[in-house]
């Protein structure tokens, strides 16, 4: 890497547990699996880390963000937003708490004088969010490839070259959590009769959900079980 090479961060953010909210993470996973990058390019699963990402953003001259974004467009629509417009789209219609956190990250970076010179948001309009433990819907999953193409074009515009791998990495060669790889996540999900799909406040009203009769006894049992396994 030459000393004048720009520092590039290709970042995926989102929550894998909320169906299409996991788009950003799945997109950056696929980017990593299919492309080799030079030393000045970092590919990162940012998850829902929010303000903990601030130093990574401060270090970046070029920032590409994959995310699920409520643009008010038809479900499954892919849209790119660039430069100063990015914070507006992350905050106009928030679909999760991580977007508020990422807005703050950008604001903090700017306040500290280390805002990226070039910023690109690649977002997809979610089809479904209210499905706790669900995976990407087909219309959203189909946009992973096109979203990566947008990222590659943006990098090329700014003189940054990445190379296709001769063979894509295996699913276990992931930049994200090994336990949350797409294959394990989709095949390991309990049947709907065993696990309520909606993780919001309506779960409590669902007659399939029952809390422990003796909460303190249940907590003690779980603590003892955990302690016994260490």
Please characterize this protein's 3D structure.
By secondary structure, the protein is α/β, with parallel strands linked by helices. The protein has a single domain, classed as HybD-like (Rossmann fold, 3-Layer(aba) Sandwich). 35% of the residues lie in helices and 16% in strands. It is built from 9 helices and 7 strands. The protein has helices at residues 23-34, 54-58, 86-92, 97-111, 138-141, 144-157, 182-187, 202-205, 215-228, and strands spanning 8-13, 35-36, 41-47, 62-68, 78-82, 118-124, 163-164. Strands 3-1-4-6-5 form a 5-stranded mixed beta sheet, with helices on one face. The chain has a two-stranded antiparallel sheet with strand order 2-7. The protein is globular. The mean pLDDT is 85.
């Amino acid at each position: 890497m030459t000393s004048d090479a720009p520092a590039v961060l290709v970042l995926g953010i989102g929550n894998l547990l909320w169906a299409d909210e996991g788009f950003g993470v799945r997109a950056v996973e696929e980017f990593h699996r299919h492309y080799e990058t030079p030393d000045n390019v970092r590919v990162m699963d940012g998850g829902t880390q929010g303000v903990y990402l601030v130093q990574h953003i401060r270090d970046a001259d070029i920032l590409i963000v994959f995310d699920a974004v409520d643009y008010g467009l038809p479900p499954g629509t892919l849209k790119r937003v660039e430069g100063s417009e990015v914070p507006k789209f992350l905050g106009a219609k928030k679909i999760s708490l991580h977007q508020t956190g990422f807005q703050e990250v950008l604001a903090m970076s700017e306040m500290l004088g280390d805002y990226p010179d070039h910023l690109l948001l690649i977002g997809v309009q979610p089809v479904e969010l209210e499905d706790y433990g669900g995976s990407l819907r087909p219309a959203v999953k189909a946009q992973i490839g096109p979203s990566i193409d947008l990222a590659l074009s943006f990098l090329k515009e700014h003189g940054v070259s990445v190379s296709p791998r001769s063979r894509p990495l295996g699913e276990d060669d992931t930049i994200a959590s090994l336990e949350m790889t797409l294959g394990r996540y989709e095949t390991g999900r309990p049947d709907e009769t065993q696990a309520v799909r909606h993780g919001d406040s309506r779960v409590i009203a669902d007659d399939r959900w029952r809390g422990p009769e003796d909460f303190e006894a249940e907590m003690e049992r779980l603590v003892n079980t955990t302690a016994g396994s260490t």
